[in-house]
Structure formats: structure tokens, C-alpha cells
Design a protein that fits this description.
Blueprint (H helix, E strand, L loop, with lengths): L4 H12 L12 E6 L5 H19 L2 E5 L4 H9 L5 E3 L2 H11 L2 E6 L7 E5 L14 E4 L5 H15 L4 E4 L3 H9 L5 E4 L1 H5 L3 H4 L2 E6 L7 E4 L5 H14 L3 H8 L6 E3 L6 H4 L11
Helix pairs in contact: 2-9
């Protein structure tokens, strides 16, 4: 007895499988870049568990991007290369205007400020004493470590310095300890992470004004639903001791929702005069 056309078609489906369009779709993949203010090994150690958490919470895949220097990271930001990015506050001001990045979360307790350090045995006790001297910075647009200090040196203290850019916060501190620079710009978080033999040989002689800290932001091409999932997954980390420990490594003391208006004060500082295009 001959098989009916329907029975033949069904048999073929069972033999070769359903059409490709009927298979479960692959999860979307997004890039997440982190400003390299810390050693890349530290960034990997801190952010890898967070990325794993985001994958579990959202069902998407995330590729952690760790650029070698802040200027390389900035080029990616300016070009909209990253779907999600943890960036300094003035980076956000710039790329919100250029690319439309939207802030998701930030530290809602601590503020960001810059520090200036010297060797303890240098005899330098006041930032005004740096007039005409060499100051090491990680990169021109590292906000707390370079951008704000450079602006305040010029506008607030009325001093001129010789700027030296050495790629990382750690290298800036080391340049001072080795006598290759008279001072270095940094932030408390990176200074506190230095080895005791380096940190204990340096003294903080200046601290800048305080500002809203780094946001994690999403590029507008990311679907709004996914951006919200990432936002809620990050906030959920702050509800458990284990999650708090992960956030502390970023460092974020108390995580909360970030809004574009949180960065309006920075927009009014005129920092574009000190921002260096990479």
C-alpha cells in the first residue's frame, strides 16, 4: 500500500530534523568593556564573575573586553564599539553626546575625586609647590587621576606643570617612587590597591573636588529590554553578601540606578578645554 504524501513528509522531517528556522535561537552576544584604570589581571579577576552572573540572569552571552590602555578604550567608546561599558564620568558625558550611551547603574554612596601624591621624603607639602615640576598621569582623560587635577592646577591653583603620561595608575605612582616624576595623579581606589612598599613611601598632598562616579552604560543599539535586564541583574548583586563582595572589587560601595541628569554638574565645568582627543 502506497504512503500518503502527508505521511511521507512527516517521515522526512523525523529523519532529517526540523527546518533550521524551527530550532531554538542562539542567545544574543554583547560586548562589555571596562576602563583599564587597574591592572588588566585585576580587571579580569573582578569582572569575570560579574559577567558570569549577567549571563545567568539575562540569558544572553557577554564578551568581556579589556583594552590595554585608556586611550585605546576611549577610541572604542568614541566609535561606539562596545554594547556595554564601565567608564569614567567624563567619558560618559562625551559618548552620551556622540553615541547616545545611556547610564544604567553607579555607586550611589561614594563620590569620585582625584588625588596627587609625592614621595614622603620629597619636601613637597602643597600642590602649589609643583609649579614648573614634572607630574605623571595614567592618561590625559583619566578623569579623577588627570582630567580634573589638570583643570584644577590651571584654574584653581594657577600653576603650570610638565605632564608625563605613563599608561596606568600604578605606573604613575611608580614613576614618583623611582624619582622619574615629582608627583602623580591618581584616585583613592587605585592608590589603596598598591603594594605597601610603594604606597607607604608616598604621601597625598592634594585632593580634588568630588563628582558623581563611574557608570555602567549601554549603547542605544542594545534592546531596551536587555539593558533593563542588565540593570536589574547588577542591582541584584547588591542584595547578597557575595554580590556585595563582587561589587566592592569594581569598586562600588552601594549600587543603584544611574540617570543622565546625575552628570549635569560635569557638563557645566568646561572640561572640554582639557579633554584630549585620541
Amino acid at each position: 500500500m502506497a504512503c500518503s504524501p502527508l505521511k511521507t513528509a512527516l517521515s522526512a522531517l523525523f529523519l532529517v530534523g526540523w527546518p533550521l528556522g524551527a530550532q531554538a535561537a542562539e542567545p544574543a552576544t554583547y560586548t562589555l568593556a571596562v576602563v583599564p584604570q587597574f591592572d588588566l589581571r585585576r580587571i579580569e579577576a573582578v569582572w569575570r564573575p560579574i559577567v558570569d552572573h549577567l549571563q545567568s540572569a539575562t540569558g544572553a552571552r557577554f564578551t568581556l573586553v579589556t583594552e590595554t590602555t585608556i586611550p585605546v578604550f576611549e577610541k572604542g567608546l568614541h566609535g561606539g564599539a562596545y554594547d556595554f561599558a564601565y567608564m569614567n564620568p567624563y567619558h560618559y558625558v562625551v559618548v552620551h553626546q556622540r553615541q547616545g550611551y545611556k547610564p544604567l547603574v553607579r555607586d550611589v554612596e561614594d563620590k569620585l575625586s582625584g588625588i596627587v601624591v609625592v614621595r614622603k621624603d620629597s619636601g613637597l607639602t602643597d600642590a602649589r609647590m609643583l609649579d614648573g615640576r614634572k607630574v605623571a598621569f595614567p592618561a590625559p582623560n583619566a578623569m579623577g587621576a588627570a582630567l580634573i587635577p589638570r583643570a584644577e592646577f590651571s584654574r584653581k591653583l594657577g600653576i603650570r606643570i610638565t605632564e608625563v603620561y605613563v599608561k596606568s595608575h600604578g605606573s604613575a605612582y611608580l614613576n614618583v617612587m623611582m624619582g622619574q616624576a615629582d608627583a602623580a595623579g591618581g584616585i583613592r581606589a587605585t592608590f589603596d590597591q598598591q603594594k605597601p612598599e610603594l604606597r607607604d613611601g608616598l604621601a597625598v598632598i592634594y585632593e580634588t573636588e568630588q563628582y558623581t562616579p563611574h557608570p555602567l552604560a549601554a549603547h542605544p543599539r542594545v534592546p531596551a529590554e536587555m539593558a533593563e535586564k542588565v540593570q536589574q541583574a547588577m542591582i541584584a548583586l547588591g542584595t547578597t553578601p557575595m554580590g556585595d563582595a563582587l561589587l566592592d572589587g569594581i569598586p562600588i560601595k552601594t549600587i543603584g540606578i544611574a540617570r543622565d541628569s546625575d552628570y549635569d554638574a560635569l557638563r557645566n565645568l568646561g572640561l572640554e578645554a582639557f579633554y584630549v582627543e585620541q
